[in-house]
Structures are given as C-alpha cells and as structure tokens.
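Entry 12.
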Amino acid sequence: MVAGNEPADPLAKGTFATAKQSWGDLFRWKQRVVVTNELGESHTEWQPPEKLKNPFSLFMQLSAKEWLYFLVGLFSWTADAFDFHALSIQTVKLSRYYERTKTDITTAITLTLLLRSVGAAVFGLLGDRFGRKWPMVANMIILGLLQIATIYSVTFEQFLAVRSLFGLFMGGVYGNAVAMALENCPQVKCLPTPPDTGYSLGYVLAACANLGVGGATDSWKTVFWIAAGLSISAGLIRCLFPESKQFREAKAAGHHISASDFWKETKSMLAKEWRMCVYCVILMTWFNYYSHTSQDSYTTFMLESKELPNDAATRASIIMKTGACVGGTIIGYLSQFIGRRRAIVGAALISCFIIPAWILPETEAGLSASGFMIQFFVQGAWGVIPIHLNELSPPAYRSSFPGLTYQLGNMISSPSAQIVNAISESHFVTSKSGELVDAYGPTMGIATAIIAVGIAVTTALGPERRGRSFEHAGPAGANIHNDVEKAVDSVSIADSKVYSATQIEEKKDEA
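Predicted 3D structure (tokens):
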C-alpha cells in the first residue's frame, strides 16, 4: 500500500449496495481503488486523483509505433463514422431520390443500429478469440464494399437491405478499435480514445463532403463514394500492422487457447459479471439515445424547421460537430482528474440548460453557436465512455464487452431518429416566415432533456473503476489455465507448509 493512502471498505456486492456506495463516493473527492500486488493479493484504498499532466507531454511519450497504432484506430473509427453519417446528413436528398418521406428514410438508420449489436457480438468474440487485427480488416473492407452497393441500390427495398448488412459489419469495429488503441498505447487512457474522437471527426468530414458536392439530389452518391474509399483504405492500412501485444505474447509463450477454454471462461465471466453487463447496456442505451436524438436529425431540423438553404445548414452542422470534437477531447481528458462519473453527470446536466438556446435561434450564426455548445457537452460526456467502459470490462474481454454493451445499447435505441422524425412530421410549429413546419425543435429538445437527466441518474448510481490497470491481462480463455496453475501452486505451497511443520515436530522429538 502506498504510504498515506487510507484503507477503504471493499467494493459493495449487490445492486442496491453498489448504488448506495456509488452515490456516496460521487461526493467524495478521493477515489475508491482496488490495488493488487505482484502476488495477486488485493485491498481497497482511497487514492487522490492524479495531477493533470500537459496533454502534449503525454502525446510526446508515445513512440513512433504507438503513434501509428493510435492513428490507425482513429482513422478506422473516423471512416466508420463517415460511412454512417453519410446517410443521416443527407436524409432530405435521399427522401427526394427514392420519393419517400424522411421518416421512411430514417428506417435505414434504425435497421443499421439494430443490427450493429449482432456484428458487435460476432466480431467482438472473434477479436477476443483470434486477435484484433483480421476481424477489423474484414470489417473495414466489407463496409467500403457495402457503401458502393448502397450507391447502386435502385429500389428503396434494396437500399434498406444493404443498410441492414452495413449495420451488421459496422458493429464489429468499435470494440476492436478501442481495444487496439488501449492495449498498444497505455498512455492513451489519460486522453479521449480514438473511437470517441473519430466518431465526431467522421461526422465533420461527412458534412464537409456534403457541403462540397452541393444540394443536388444525386449528389449523395458522391459522398458515399468518398466513404467507400476511406473504409477500404483503413482496412488495407490495418493489414500492415502486427497483432495486438497480448496475443503476440500469448502466442510466443506457447499458450494454446481452445474453444472449450474460451467458452468456459466466457460462461464464468457472465455468471460473475451479469449485473455489470446489464448496467453497461442500460447506460449505453441512454447514451445512444442522447447522441442520435441530438444530432441525426439536426441538419433536417435546420432545412425544414428553420428554412435554411443546404449550404448554410451544412456549415452549421460542421460547426456543431466541431464542438463535439473539442468537448470530447477536453472533458474526456478532465475525467482523469475529476473522475469518470462526475465528468459525465456534470456534462449531461449542463447540456439540459443549453437546450432552449439550441432550438430557438433562427439564423445560421445562432444555430451554429448553440449547436457547438450543446454538442460540446453531449460529446463531452461521450468522451469519457471509451475508457470508462474499458475500466468496467472484465480484463480478458476488452474487445467484446465494450463493443457488445455499446451496440446492444444501439440496438435498443435504434428507432431514435425514426421516432424524432415521426413525431416531428405529425406536429407543427410556425416558422419565421409564418408557415407551419415540422416540429423538429420541440421534439428534439424535450427528448434530449429527458435523456440527459436519465444519464445523470444512471451514472450517479453506477460503479466506477478509474485507475484500473488492464494492459497486461491475458486473452480470453488463457485465464482458465492460469487458474489451474494458481490452484496447483496453492496446493504445492500448502503441502510445503505441512511438510515443514512435520519436520519441525520431528526435530523436536529428536531433541
């Protein structure tokens, strides 16, 4: 134990006990941390938060190889986000192209989000079983090909079918990307990780592409061609880098992880950590509603309700998501000092107070400024999630656990954009021109406020494992052998102790 750190009660067991302990810890500056020594012995103590370090000095600590891993992870999730937002920011164009309502077009978003959970389960488990590299390569290349297939979808039914497949393969990227970054670049856990920053950056780039191609109906195809190129490039670049460090070390040590070992440990993990799994799915459901409700229909809101032209609405969207990039970076970094949960709760509650300023302006400048500010805090809360989920994850499942809980939350919240569009198109408000327009503003504002409060409450009552170390954990299935080895060692130690005691008695008798 480090001198000066006072002992703390062990982590609570059970749902209500954990909620009570978590609520109390939220108002205590020091962090309750489980410390494990080299012999595997654990104790709990209160630790003061780490002093904030110059983020540029942290980046300088990365070697050239670690920088490459970081940038590949960033680029992969940026390309994936570009693929997804290429549709959401062009909803109006696609509704004209297929001669369908905007609610019909957002059905594609619902199907994409719905099937991402399946992809997360399949490719996350493959990543934990066989390594991060090749599942991620397959994801990115197939995503690019599906973007091309979207372009050649003649009927609306074909369009929906392709976007469903797109969701299946998109779901596998998140868990492997964040695991790759955190396992190969331990310093990155003090900074917002690539999946978060890349998601916002992907939106900004997609909006820039939309601005560049103009507002013509067929121009949506050009944006999808760009998306296809980015995804395929990310997959090919990932081919050039070696496997994750933990898998290379396990292979070098001659550890063979059979399917039986893998599933045995997986069942053991689920039996032990099912409460954590349920909690993280609930948390990610709130968070996915939070982001998709506040951003997916924002461009449509400015085009339809605020009557802005395409170029003005797109510029405002770019500035809005720039705020997300900045907020995710700053608040994600501050969470290392103020705590993961305090950062999330604070950002979520502040976003509630900004909602009126977000939906009431009528000009491009006003909507740009208010959009920047609300997304600063919406994505600021999101900026904590990648590292928070990894710290809550069972160490051997850092590919499947974050990805699967995130995508299950996506599945439950998948109708968010469709719900917003359906309610907005069935209710009307008066625009500045005096005409009745779809009520996107009130719908998005009320929904976002409810969701932000839900996030604050769920996070305040949930666990936190800031400071948890996970770089050196073995892959899933390897711990079955480790447990056996520990058990054998324990028996050997016990036998030696008994033998030593017997020898002592014999010596006494001889004396």
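Annotation: The CA atoms of residues 430 and 436 lie 5 Å apart. The longest helix spans residues 259-295.
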